[in-house]
Design a protein that fits this description.
The structure is a single chain. By secondary structure, the chain is α/β, with parallel strands linked by helices. The radius of gyration is 21 Å and the shape is globular. The two termini are 32 Å apart. Helix 3 packs parallel to helix 4. The longest helix has 32 residues, at 240-271. The protein contains 12 helices and 11 strands. Strands 1-9-8-5-4-2-3 form a 7-stranded mixed β-sheet, sandwiched between helices. Bound molecules: pyridoxal-5'-phosphate.
């Protein structure tokens, strides 16, 4: 979903001429983060030590699960979560089309079959009705990503369908729905700490659960050494200095979220009267991982904003139904989102003058593109 190039500026982009003055995304690394990592380096204990265990405990308790397993990526966390469901004749996993390709990779890696469904008309999250149509005897699991910081409003109903659900919180750690943190509602939840995500360890991830059995299965799959008998296992571990970074980032998470919400309010205020952009309604519990503008042609807006030194992107590189050459008529909402959505810079390090510059550049774009008018 995100390219390496966008971790920090300058970055090049299709259609860009100038160097990006404002990168699309940038991690927030503070003095306390640096100290935490250096302490571990100086200790000489770089792996399998205290920091990983503490990070697992702290994130589980922040989200609301009894345990967690830190991994080297969100993709590994998803893969482990799918493996924890065991083997039987059910082999289909329901996933939304408008999501990160990591979902597809994890499903295939686990030798399962993806069943791709559409998103909602009113937000970018997986559609409960589409899930109901796709669910069947062979359904093994549903992967439900809370997209762009917005909680899935129907997550409780999805869990009640009776099929194991993996809440994918890679883009929404800290978000909540009806007073509950995302990730705490289903039996399994996965997180990513890639450099562009809300909190980062460079690369990294975690899977959380409150099922002792599933936690045991997954831990066992991660334990490759000291096995009395051979059993397939993996090394997806996180290092201790990464876990130390994760812990110090987690301590700042609520502040990061407050800053994202503050910037979002500024944007909302400024964009609501511009006739060429639509600002989709966001939920109370959103953590604004992405700030999405809907415009008539995302491509031309992105090219133009990038030329004006504002880093912006399509929030999803390519919908999954396109990769699989599925009938696009079955994915009208995903298609529409892909055509119109532009992801704008939003992160704690964005200064007030950057925000003003971005708003000004969007206003300039307005004058050069055909408008589709306001939603009635
Ligand atoms: C980033 C992401 C992942 C994969 O995480 P990695 O750490 O990059 O492997 C999975 N799901 C979603 C929704 C993501 O955005």
């Amino acid at each position: 979903m995100d390219s390496i190039a966008e971790q920090s500026g300058p970055a090049s982009h299709v259609g860009s001429v100038n160097t990006e003055r404002i990168p699309h995304s940038r991690p927030t690394i503070q003095e306390s983060d640096v100290r935490a990592v250096v302490e571990v380096l100086a200790s000489g204990r770089l792996a399998d030590a205290a920091q990983v265990t503490l990070f697992e405990r702290e994130l589980s308790s922040y989200v609301g699960h009894t345990g967690g397993i830190a991994t080297n990526s969100g993709t590994s966390a998803l893969y482990l979560a799918l493996l924890s469901l065991g083997h039987d004749s059910r082999n289909e996993v329901i996933i939304p089309s408008y999501a990160c390709i990591a979902l597809l990779n994890a499903v295939y890696a686990a030798h399962l079959m993806p069943v791709v469904v559409d998103i909602n008309e009113y937000d970018y999250n997986i559609s409960l009705n589409a899930i109901k149509r796709a669910i069947g005897r062979k359904t093994k699991a549903i992967i439900a990503p809370h997209m762009f910081g917005d909680p899935i409003t129907d997550i409780q109903e999805i869990v009640e369908l009776g099929v194991p659900v993996v809440e994918d919180c890679a883009l929404s750690v800290g978000a909540s729905v009806d007073g509950r943190k995302v990730g705490s509602i289903a039996e399994l939840a996965v997180f990513s700490f890639y450099a562009t995500k809300l909190l980062t360890t460079g690369h990294g991830g975690m899977v959380l659960s409150s099922s002792d059995e599933k936690l045991r299965t997954m831990r066992d799959l991660m334990q490759y050494d000291h096995r009395p008998e051979y059993g397939q296992s993996f090394n997806f571990r996180l290092t201790d200095f990464q876990a130390a970074l994760g812990r110090s980032q987690l301590a700042e998470l609520d502040d990061f979220i407050a800053q994202r919400r503050r910037i979002a309010r500024r944007y909302n205020q400024s964009f609501k009267d511009m006739s060429c952009v639509r600002v989709p309604a966001r939920l109370e519990g959103s953590v604004y991982f992405r700030y999405i503008l809907e415009v008539e042609h995302a491509d031309s807006w992105i090219a133009s904003l990038c030329r004006q030194a504002v880093g912006c992107r399509r929030p999803v590189f390519k919908p999954l139904h396109e990769y699989l050459s599925l009938n696009r008529d079955d994915y009208p909402n995903s298609d529409r989102a892909h055509r119109h959505n532009v992801s704008m810079p939003i992160y704690p390090g964005l200064r007030e003058k950057d925000v003003e510059f971005i708003i000004d550049r969007v206003a300039t774009c307005q004058t050069s593109f055909r408008c589709w008018g306001k939603i009635p």
